[in-house]
Amino acid sequence: MRRPSAIPVSAPPAEHGDLRADEPDRVGRGATSAFEERGAGTAEEAGRQGGAGPIPLGRGATPGAARAGAGEDDAHAGAPHEGPLTALDLWRATRARRRALRSEIRRFTQRSRRRRIGWIVGAALALLVVGGSVGAAYSPLFAVQTITVEGTGALKPADVQKALAGQLGRPLALVDPSAVKAALVRFPLIETYRLEAHPPHDLVVRIVERTPVGVLQQSDGRFTVVDAAGVVLSTSEERPAGYALIEIDGGTGTPAFSAVGTALRTLPAELRAQVDSAAASTPDDIVLQLAGGAKIVWGSADQSAEKTLALQALMKANPGASSYDVSSPGVGVVG
């Protein structure tokens, strides 16, 4: 009986330290270790018997993967690494993040710098425009060369221009309002005025004249033309035509004069010129006398505008009446 041959002694397993140094992927290590131990002796025995030598394992390869074809190796050559991160991977990720952070900071800084430069340029341009405008306004480039007077009736524009001649040659922005007022206050006919600067060289004076409402006879026999406020506009030895003779007691400072002045000023200029006299002993009993002889009972100065309309309607409907009572404008009475 033939004695069975001895079981060949397996070679010691390969050094796992060398294999692990080249293997980044430790997943499934336990599943393949037995295979590696079993295959080590078989490969060595096969070498001794003249068979094929051991197949070297690449990085992360398994025996099954080592036996795969070359085409499959090429297909998996570019596959991403799925093992745990190494120190090199962490360093690369940190460096990439720092680069991205620096790039973002740089972009934000550039936007802030551009925005700040825009604000600075805009503010500089605004200051330049304002400064140039102010400088030009106070320079001889905008000096007064002509004075235009508007709104005059009884006044002569040439007289007003002559009174304001001291403002010629001054920059429009430096026209002295106090000097203008002092020059115009000498004209009693001026009730209000307004100055307007029309660059580059025109100064416009808009005047509102006082409205003469009647004449008062003074104790010396002279006649003074006054407005509704009692301001004396002119004085003459003879009674001027076209103005009602105001007959009151106490002068221009009394309530009766104020009421008469209000009533006369409310009348249209054509109708006011027909009034020969206006009398009142109190503010509530104003009586107007027309040059044609008709009498107008006005009453108080209240509702003077309505009374004027009622009087015009009564005179148009009854031109030959001897009296018109408009003390109650809603109920006119013709006599």
Could you list some keywords that capture this structure?
nine-stranded mixed beta sheet, Rossmann fold, alpha/beta, Ubiquitin-like (UB roll), 40% helix, 19% strand, elongated
The CATH architecture name of the domain at 212-334 reads 3-Layer(aba) Sandwich
Helix percentage range: 25-40%
The helix tally amounts to 10
Remind me, CATH topology of the domain at 212-334? Rossmann fold
- Estimate the strand proportion: 15-25%
Shape descriptor: elongated
CATH superfamily of the domain at 212-334: Cell division protein FtsQ/DivIB
Number of strands: 12
Describe the structure.
- By secondary structure, this protein is α/β, with parallel strands linked by helices.
- Among the domains are: 92-124; 141-209, membrane protein fhac (Ubiquitin-like (UB roll), Roll), CATH 3.10.20; 212-334, Cell division protein FtsQ/DivIB (Rossmann fold, 3-Layer(aba) Sandwich).
- 40% of the residues lie in helices and 19% in strands.
- It has helices at 16-22, 29-48, 63-66, 70-75, 87-137, 157-163, 177-184, 255-266, 269-272, 304-317, and strands at residues 146-150, 190-198, 202-209, 212-217, 223-227, 232-236, 244-247, 275-279, 286-290, 295-299, 323-325, 333-334.
- The strands form two sheets. It has a nine-stranded mixed beta sheet with strand order 6-5-4-7-8-9-10-11-12, with helices on one face. It has a three-stranded mixed beta sheet with strand order 1-3-2, with helices on one face.
- Strand 11 (323-325) and strand 12 (333-334) form a beta hairpin.
- Mean pLDDT is 79; it is low at 4-79.
